[in-house]
């Protein structure tokens, strides 16, 4: 099992009370699968993803990613884990405005152990011809393509996407989802994606529905729908 989460709990203090945001989550995802997390706002989706990605820590429970017991890592090892194994894509692209597209990717590849070639990933996301542009010269969809290139250049085992199409229009969203499916197939990257859009679940192997910090439904799709055929 590539991702194996069990009995994961996390609370945050809010004022004088402590709110339990994750109430004993269990979930599994196989290597090379795409998993989608659905759930209403505030249900704990980002918290769960951030703990799997080593951005945040759980209070109790276990998170094992490709044999690495993430919850046991000290701070230095957690940084190494994030740097070597996990790519992140967020709703907002977080590109460095003063660097070109190519440079935005190279800042990551320069600190990676076994990076892919910058031109290769730019070609994979169909942005090779925009290598010398600055982020402000790109559309939202193009910026998201660059942020996906930046996430995959380190050749991560795991790509975590938090509402990757949240700021994009319909057609652009579908092209980004198609790109994520291509990355999954081309590089064998396991992908876990948060979305509000239930239609997107059709492109996933497994779908986890989260409500108030609990997984209330898990679906295994027998047929995976290509992103370009998904409509909403
Ligand atoms: N650092 C934090 N400190 C305190 N409370 C937090 C913190 N991070 C998240 N929370 C709370 O935890 C709950 C779950 O937040 P989370 O961001 O995981 O939900 P979500 O399902 O991803 O929501 P959305 O779809 O709106 O992004 C929310 O009530 C939020 O206010």
TrEMBL record:
Origin organism is Hydrogenispora ethanolica
Name this polypeptide is given: Putative ABC transport system ATP-binding protein
Q: Does the keyword Transport apply?
A: yes
- GO MF terms on file? ATP binding; ATP hydrolysis activity; transmembrane transporter activity
Give the UniProt family note.
Belongs to the ABC transporter superfamily.
Return the SUPFAM superfamilies for the record.
P-loop containing nucleoside triphosphate hydrolases
Q: Which Gene Ontology terms of cellular component type are present? A: membrane protein complex
User: What keywords sit in the KW lines?
Assistant: ATP-binding, Nucleotide-binding, Transport
UniProt entry tagged with the keyword ATP-binding:
yes
Pfam families to which the protein is assigned, alphabetical: ABC_tran
Q: Where is the ABC transporter domain?
A: 3-232
